[in-house]
Structure formats: C-alpha cells, structure tokens
Amino acid sequence: MESLMQGSSRSVIGLSVVLLLLLSGCGAAYSGYVSRSLNQLEKGNYEAALGKLEKPTGKTNKLLYHLEKGLILHYQGQYEASNVEFERAERLSDQLYTRSVSREIAALLSNDSIVAYRGEEFELALIHYYRAMNYARLGDRQAALVECRKANLKLENYAQQAEYELSYKNDAFLQYMTGLFFEAEGEWNDAYISYKDALKGYRAYETAFDLQAPRMLIIDLARLAKRLGYEDEVAEYTERYQLELEEIQPTSGGELVVFVESGFVPRKHQVEFSVPILKDEGKWEVWTVSERAVHRYHHPYVYKRGHVDYWLRVALPEYREVPSQVAGVRLRAGDQSALAATAEDLDAIAQRTFAQKFDTILLRAVARNLAKYLASKSIEKAFEDDDDDDDENDWAKEGLGKALGGLVNLFGVATEAADTRGWLALPHAIRIARLAVTPGTAAPTLELLDDRGRVLSVETLPEVAVADGEKVFLNFRTFR
Fold first, then answer.
1. Using CA atoms, how far apart are residues 403 and 375, in angstroms rounded to an integer?
2. What does the H/E/C string look like for the chain?
3. Which are the contacts of 206, defined by CB distance < 8 A and separation ≥ 6?
4. Cα gap 336→392, rounded to integer Å
5. Could you read off the pLDDT of 253-309 as tens digits, one per residue?
6. Which of 121, 160, 367, 459 fits a 20 to 30 Å CA distance from 419?
7. pLDDT tens-digit map of 96-125
C-alpha cells in the first residue's frame, strides 16, 4: 500500500490543484448578491440602495458594481458622482475587452462566472445614455452629444469583434436622442443626419426586435427636410408615411421632451439539460464533439439503446422577462397632453442578442463539461494502467482510481453553473413623450397607463422653465 501511495502522489497533487481551481468558481449568484440593494431601489430609497450595494473584493463583478452605483446616483440626482462611476465603468469595460487568457482557461475548467464580467452590448451602450442625461441635467449639452456619438461608435466596434452575428449593432434610440440634442442646439444639418440614421436603425429594429420607428421621428425628418429645403425628401416622407401638412409645420413656443423608463430589464436564470455523447466519440477532439452536441441540441433525436455512451449535464443562462405593469404613458402640462412612443425595448434587445450568442455559449459549456468528465476518466485509467507488478495492490489501485476519478467528476458537477450576471437595475423599456408648451414655467405630470389604457398612477415632475424655441429634456423612472 505504501508503494501505491508513493506512486500516485503526483496524481493526488494534480488532483488537488484541479479541485482548488474548481472551487474558485463557486459562489453565490450575482442576483442574490445585489438583491438587497435592488429591493431598496424599487422603493425609491436611493440612499439605502447605495448603502446595501456591496463593493466586490475582487475584479469579477467590479464592472457591475460601477454600473449599478452609477445608475442609483443618477436617479438620486447626484449627476457628477454618477458620471464618475460611469466613467470608471467605461474604462474598465474597454480594458476587459482584452481578454485574460489564464482566466479564460480557468473558466473552461470550472465555469464562466470566474471571468470578470465584461457587459452585454446593450448595457455598455446605455452607459452613454445615462452619462448624456447627466450632462443634460448639468447644462452641458455638448458633452451630452459626445456621449451619444460614442455609444454607436462602440457598438460598431463590438459587432466587428464579436464571435457571432449581431442584430444590435446600431442603437436607433440613441441616434434619435442625438438628433434631438443637435436640434436643440440649432445644428440642423447634424440633427437631420442623426434622424436619418435613427430611421435606418429603426428599420433594422422592426426586423430584429419588432419595434417600428416612432411616428414623431418621421415628422421630425419631414419638418427638418422642409427647413433645409429638401423638397424631394419632404414629398417622399409625406407620401410614404401619409403625413398631414400641418404635422410638419414649425411650432411656436418651447417643448418638453421626457424619456420615461419603466420596469426592469429581463434577468438571466440558470437552466439545465443533458446532451448525448455517443460511444464512437471517445477518441475525437473535445471541440469536434462539442460542435456535434450543439447540432443535436437544435435537432433532437431518439437514440437507439447502446448508441449513447453517457449523458452530459450542462448548465446554461436563459433570459426571463420581468413583466411591467406600464403599457403606456401620457404626458400632461396645463391643458395639453401627448402619448409617449416606445423608443427602446430592452427586453426584446436582450432576448434577441442572447439568442444570437446562444450557440457559442452552448459550445463552451459542452466543451467545459466534456473536459471535466474526461479528466475524471483519465485519472481512473491512470491507476488502471499503473505498471506496478504488485498484484496484491491491484484492487486498491483500482478502487483509489475510481474514487479519485469520481471525486473529480463530483466537483465538476458541483461547480457547473451558468453565468447569470447582468446590469439588473436597467429598465424594461424607454419611451419618449414630447409636448409643445407656451414659454414660461411648466408643471408637467405623467400618467402611467396599463394595457387597457387605465391610469395606474399620476407622477409629478419638477417644474421647469421653458424659453421660446427651447427643448427641455427630462427623464423619469418607474419601477412598476
């Protein structure tokens, strides 16, 4: 027995290293980690939400910490402090797009949650929306424009670097917002170009996310085309979209533009299923078998007895909608009112872009679990193939090999977890409400409507001074 233990010490040491690596991937789900802060945020207790937001000790969830904190500070009205957090998040996200090879290998052996979270594309784009709104509230409209332009430049870059084909490579809402800011500054040509880019983006949105361009965008395009003397384009927009001539006439007075954020973005949950590994695949490369497993996932088949060597357990993330009570919004000021239009459906964007990444996520998950399974089997085989001639110890070697192999497999199963992290405080959707008002002080209110048009609640916005020809930008968040 002594010779057996000496002969297998190297295997035991290697096993210990593997187990320590596997254990490093274990930990509580991010949603549980941030839930206490979110509960306070949902109640509008921003100070308490900040107090409950725990700063992570490592780098794994550092980006999410800055994102959540930046958003809470924004809602609290701490616009400069919010921009500091979002700037940190932006710098960190840029750094994280240079991958750490060692951490990626470790993730392949345990799970994706040990890799520093880099953010979904729509999350990184919305950093610039909130920074733009912070600058707008601070009176720096030019800085807000810079943020709007940066967002779509980054999306284009992410799309070029992606391992998958993405529909979300141009944020139509942010293009529209850019045009509104340009127009507010009197930069008509730049506004017109942004509006055209927004319309192009919404045409892609209609195909990918089932969201049409807001009618108010078409009116803005036709109205600006008329101002700039583009009569052919005025005729085109008027005819194609059946606009009335009075809709595109210049309006007097000022305008309120309110971005209304409602609900919560969908959240990732873990789902588990098993994929068949066939008997003849034991001698194949891991990635080849994994690619075949992805194909089998999309093409289920009833296998004959004896064809399947074993069933491989895989854990994957899955987005689930967080239902919102708010189905519509009406903006009122004095005796004037206007219904809001949905400009950004984050639920649809999150679900669709995840679907386009799914095969890559599944491929990695199968390869990871297959590698862990094969590691356990190789340990068993190493003990079986030991050249020690001591037959009396054969039973002990075989038993120890199976025990160690089973232990590695057990830890592999225990550490298999889907990466369910995400920026959880984001809204479900963003709507735009616009209302022409007479110059002076306006006291706007929002009526939040359910799916039958009934008023859920009336929310009072702060009084604002609106000058003749001025656009005043506000945003409001409801967690319903």
1. 13
2. CHHHHHHCHHHHHHHHHHHHHHHHCCCCCHHHHHHHHHHHHHCCCHHHHHHHCCCCCCCCCHHHHHHHHHHHHHHHCCHHHHHHHHHHHHHHHHHHCCCCHHHHHHHHHCCHHHCCCCCCHHHHHHHHHHHHHHHHHCCCHHHHHHHHHHHHHHHHHHHHHCCCCCCCCCCHHHHHHHHHHHHHCCCHHHHHHHHHHHHHHHHHHHHHHCCCCCHHHHHHHHHHHHHHCCHHHHHHHHHHCCCCHHHHCCCCCEEEEEEEEECCCCEEEEEEEEEEEEHHHCCCCHHHHHHHHHHHHHCCCCCCCCCEEEEEEEEEEEEECCCCCCCEEEEEECCEEEECEEEEEHHHHHHHHHHHHHHHHHHHHHHHHHHHHHHHHHHHHHHHCCCCCCHHHHHHHHHHHHHHHHHHHHHHHHCCCCCCCCCCCCCCEEEEEEEEECCEEECCEEEEECCCCCEEEEEECCCEEECCCCEEEEEEEECC
3. 212, 213
4. 94
5. 899 999 999 999 999 999 998 888 888 776 778 888 888 888 888 888 887 777 888
6. 160
7. 876 544 445 555 555 666 788 989 999 999
Please give the structure tokens belonging to residue 272: 């588990």
Single out the residue of 455, 456, 473 nearest to residue 464, CA to CA: 473
- The whole-angstrom separation of Cα 378 and Cα 375 is 5
Measuring CA to CA, how many Å separate 128 from each of 118, 145, 205?
16, 10, 20
Identity at 468, one-letter amino acid code = D
Q: To which residue do tokens 């920074």 refer?
A: 131
Identify whether the C-beta of residue 299 lies closer than 8 Å to the C-beta of residue 336. Answer: no
Task: Please state, in angstroms and rounded to a whole number, the distance separating the CA atoms of residues 148 and 342.
Answer: 18
Residue 27, sorted as left (phi over 0), alpha (psi -120 to 50) or beta, turns out to be: left
Q: How far apart are CA 393 and CA 396, in angstroms?
A: 5
pTM surpassing 0.70?
Answer: yes
Q: Edge-to-edge, what's the strand order for the sheet holding 328-333?
A: 336-339, 328-333, 445-449, 455-460
Structure-derived torsion over alpha carbons of residues 291, 294, 300, 304, reported in degrees to the nearest 10: 40
What gap in Å lies between CA 180 and CA 198, rounded to an integer?
11
Task: Please report where in the chains the tokens 């000022």 appear, as a residue.
Answer: 254
Distance CA 360, CA 314 (A): 14
